[in-house]
Amino acid sequence: MRHRVAGKKLGRKTPHRLMMFRNMVTSLLDKERIQTTVERAKAVRPIAEKIITLGKRDSLHARRQALAFVKDPAIVSKLFSNLAPRFAERPGGYTRIIKLGFRPGDGTQKAIIELVGSEFKPKERKGKAKKSEKAPVAAESEKSEK
How confident is the model at residue 142 (pLDDT cuts 50, 70, 90)? Predict the structure, then answer.
């Protein structure tokens, strides 16, 4: 029986697992979205939400508790100055998990875990311009030649 046994071990020893969670939460708070497996995303979600809730308290004790877990002062200051005010009115549910499909190598399911409010914004391409963008430029150059 597994009464009162919470959480997954993810095939790692306890210190390795805790450091992995610290690194993932730090990256999530820094970049606001990370790509990982579904199992890891589900394991990291409650930890990340607790850290964001610490940021909403905005006290010295909460800041020290966050620093005890995150270990990067720049990211903790970002948490307290930018992220916590963004979620001030929200009572929970600061993250979302989006399933991506299966990884080709071993078939495990991939996912994106991201902070709510940091929607995907595609980068503008610097390479070739689209045909519709080139057409007006070509028409102008033909007019100038005539």
Answer: low
Rg of the chain on CA atoms, in Å: 22
**Higher-pLDDT residue of 128, 90:** 90
> Per CATH, the architecture of 14-120 is what?
Alpha-Beta Complex (3.90)
Q: How many CA atoms lie within 13 A of 19 on its CB side?
A: 5
Q: For tokens 């790509």, name the residue.
A: 35
What integer pLDDT is reported at residue 143 of this predicted model? 58
CA–CA dist 102, 94 (Å, integer): 25
The reported pLDDT for the residue numbered 13 is 95
